[in-house]
Amino acid sequence: MKRVILVRYGEIALKGLNRPLFESKLINNIRKSLYGFGKIDVIKSQSRIYIEPDGEDYDFEAAMERLTKVFGIVSVSPVWKIEPEFETIKEYVLKMVKELLDRKELKTFKVEAKRGNKRFPMESPEICRELGAHLLTSIPSLRVDVNNPSFTTFVEVREWAYIYSEIITASGGMPTGTNGKAMLLISGGIDSPVAGWMIAKRGVELEAVHFYSYPYTSERAKEKVIELTKIVASFCGQIQLNIVPFTDIQLEINEKCPEDLMTIIMRRVMMTISERIAEKRGAQALITGESIGQVASQTMQSLAATNAVVKIPVFRPLIGMDKNEIVEIARKINTFETSILPYEDCCTVFVAKHPKTKPQLKSVEAAESHAVLEGLIEKALENTEVLLIRGQEPIGE
Ligand code: ATP
Ligand code: MG
Q1: Which residue range(s) make up the domain with 49?
Q2: Are residues 104 and 203 in the same domain?
Q3: What separation in Å is there between the alpha carbon of 71 and the centre of ligand 1?
């Protein structure tokens, strides 16, 4: 018997030529995410991937935990790979179910069998019946429930027999690196990490840009953004984070522009700088965490005024979502607790008491022209600090 991990991926969404790219990227990303866990064979067979560790003491729990975060994987199962021989299957199915029942209190079950190997002498219904009866007589506390079982034991007979009873849901999406690169504007808030995760889930490689206003915002506020970037990177491998000093720009805007348009002008400068970094880094879009009407700078008019300053496409995956829906995802991806840490953000430092909620682009542009920004933008780009944030510390380095 050998323990292996079965990886399922979303084959249905794949068309023609995309498929080999999808599969080879996925296998590559799987290998990267399990780097340092020990030697493995990764075997692709019939739209599935099997991960077979070489040694005895492989950490399956930790490996599966990591795999559930790898985009492109729909689910994983811990599987026992055994000789395709009925007595052996019987023996190991019982062992496996007993092991499962030691960990979880489960009362009802069913058996599902698939026979891919036509040399195997029994047909699927017979395999189910015999194994079901064997489990019932061996474990008196169990009952069969074919409609709503608390667990299902799967038996697949191919060149080998594969048995398993657990299916662990993973992130889904497309493998990182199959759909270009985008630049995430990440603040320390709840929304932008979620926005980044949503786009990354579609196979888009991420880079990030953060604007900070030292000494108005603290070193800890910056640490918080690094931590959030790291959590997002735990799904997609690594993220290059560009940290842009924003204080001089904010002071200039604060001094020269009308207060009620200050935020929107700052947001436009953020977009401008992000677009330039995106161009330099080969990113094809920007990503923000904006959602219609959430704050004054996210009304339809404000969004239009922010959008007008860049040519690059801007993705706003949260645009139609309510805060509680965003929070739900933030909890799921584990960014929420970090996002609500109470450190100040650069936008909360220079904030107007009564920001315009319906700014007209013409008046925003007129107001903006009072500030002398180009030199400051270039200086900010020059002084940008670049960090490579890895999702996981590689084991054994
Ligand atoms: P978040 O929760 O993401 O901070 P928010 O609801 O607080 O969003 P705003 O502060 O208006 O909204 O920012 C809107 C978007 O602008 C953010 O989602 C983010 O993409 C970007 N953004 C805001 N502040 C910064 C910053 N300091 N650095 C980089 N991007 C920022
Ligand atoms: Mg914010």
Answers
A1: 2-169
A2: no
A3: 25
Task: Round to the nearest angstrom and report the end-to-end CA distance of the chain.
Answer: 31
Domain presence at residue 396: no
Domain membership flag for residue 97: yes
Examine the domain organization and report whether 162 and 223 are in the same domain: no
Any atom of ligand 1 within 6 Å of the Cβ of 189: yes
Check whether residue 107 and residue 200 sit in a common domain.
no
Peptide bond into 84 cis (omega under 30): no
Residue whose CA lies nearest to ligand 1 atom number 17: 289
Task: Give every residue of the chain whose pLDDT is below 70, as ranges.
Answer: 11-13, 344-349, 394-397
Instruction: Answer yes or no: pTM beyond 0.85.
Output: yes
Ligand 2 mean position, distance from CA 345 (Å): 7
Supply the residue whose CA is at minimum distance from atom 23 of ligand 1. Answer: 187
List the CATH number of the domain containing 38.
Answer: 3.30.2130.30
Encode pLDDT of 174-196 as tens digits: 999 999 999 999 999 999 999 99
Q: List the 205-212 sheet strands across, edge first.
A: 314-315, 285-287, 181-185, 205-212, 238-245, 385-390
- Nearest Cα residue to atom 16 of ligand 1: 288
Domain assignment present for 30: yes
pLDDT digits (tens, 9 = 90+) for 331-341: 999 999 999 99
Q: Which of 192, 272, 310 is the best mutation target for the ligand 1 pocket, counting ligand atoms within 8 Å of the beta carbon and taking the most?
A: 192
The last residue of a domain, from among 131, 147, 169: 169
Both 155 and 224 in a single domain? Answer: no
In angstroms, what is the span from residue 367 Cα to ligand 2's centroid?
23
Per the structure, the count of domains in the chain is 2
